[in-house]
Design a protein that fits this description.
- With about 260 residues, the protein is an alpha/beta fold.
- Helices cover about 45% and strands about 15% of the residues.
- The chain contains 12 helices and 8 strands.
- The chain has helices spanning about 20-40, 55-65, 90-95, 105-110, 115-125, 140-145, 150-160, 165-170, 190-205, 210-215, 230, 250-260; strands spanning about 5-10, 45-50, 70-75, 100, 130-135, 170-175, 215-220, 240.
- It has an 8-stranded parallel beta barrel with strand order 1-2-3-4-5-6-7-8, surrounded by 7 helices.
- Helix 3 links the parallel strand 3 and strand 4 (about 100).
- Helix 1 (about 20-40) runs parallel beside helix 2 and helix 1 (about 20-40) packs parallel to helix 12 (about 250-260).
- The longest helix is centred in the N-terminal third of the chain and has 21 residues, at about 20-40.
- It binds phosphoenolpyruvate.
Length: about 260
């Protein structure tokens, strides 16, 4: 990645760790993450526990305040309040978090989220001071049929529709090929880099070259301490969205390897 885009390593804990376990796990890793972040000023780390565990992890971070260690939610509604049982709003998320993952493939797959809905959520996040981490990616069938470019193009355009250039710079894109999520079969660094470049070109064509250069693009899908170095060394890969490896102490080593690869 280039030096003017601080890399992001975000951990998506998915539906793992209720408040008690989240607190003890965070208390275990946060001091170590803190040491690494002090050593690697070009890294930003985002922890995304389940909604119910956000306050517990927030408390741990409040006891160990670090500028580049932030909290993120895994989803939110686009309305500020109302009769939406079971949902949380952007303003509620903003009380604890700076980041929010939106349009994760599991939300698209199991909860019917469309680009149109993701677009509403992205706008709401931006309007309420949150940094959206917008997930896109093709499934295995689309990959095999060589439709990746078409899928990526339509997801980027759909998820970011009518967002002005001043705001779109705050959006982080996470390219997560669905066939690579939780399978242990990560995309090769070369293949991931090609898609990143495509996304950057799309931004340049839609907005301008500066926007294409500024957008941070993460790779997600079976990222571990072993492959993060090669991935993050690619010129257009600005970090990773990490699932399985983010709920183990190994996440610390992953951050270490990311920092080393950039030094
Ligand atoms: C994810 O769910 O965003 C993800 C990338 O998962 P994993 O790292 O486990 O493949």
């Amino acid at each position: 990645m280039t030096s003017d885009r601080t890399a992001i390593i975000a951990g998506n804990w998915k539906m793992h760790y209720g408040p008690k376990k989240a607190k003890s796990f965070a208390a275990e890793i946060v001091p170590q993450l803190g040491q690494l972040l002090t050593h690697y000023p070009q890294l930003l780390c985002v922890l995304c526990p389940p909604t119910i565990s956000l306050p517990a992890v927030y408390d741990v971070l409040a006891e160990n305040p670090l500028a580049r260690l932030e909290l993120g939610a895994q989803n939110m509604h686009y309305e500020v309040q109302g009769a939406f049982t079971g949902e949380v709003s952007p303003t509620m998320v903003h009380e604890l978090c700076r980041n929010v993952i939106l349009g994760h493939s599991e939300r698209r797959m199991y909860f019917g989220e469309t680009d149109e809905l993701v677009n509403k959520k992205v706008k709401a996040a931006l309007n309420h001071g949150l940094r959206p981490i917008v997930c896109i990616g093709e499934n295995e069938e689309q990959y095999e049929a060589a439709h990746t470019e078409r899928v990526i193009r339509s997801q980027v355009m759909g998820s970011l529709a009518s967002i002005p250039e001043q705001q779109v710079r705050d959006v982080v894109i996470a390219y997560e090929p669905i066939w690579a999520i939780g399978t242990g079969k990560a995309a090769s660094a070369d293949d991931a880099e090609k898609v990143m470049r495509l996304i950057r070109e799309l931004y340049s064509a839609t907005y301008n070259a500066a926007a294409g250069d500024a957008v941070r693009i993460l790779y997600g899908g079976s990222v571990t301490a072993k492959n993060i170095g090669e991935l993050i060394a690619q010129p257009d890969i600005d970090g990773a969205l990490v699932g399985g490896a983010s709920i183990k102490a190994d996440f610390v080593e992953l951050l270490h390897q990311a920092g080393e690869a950039q030094s």
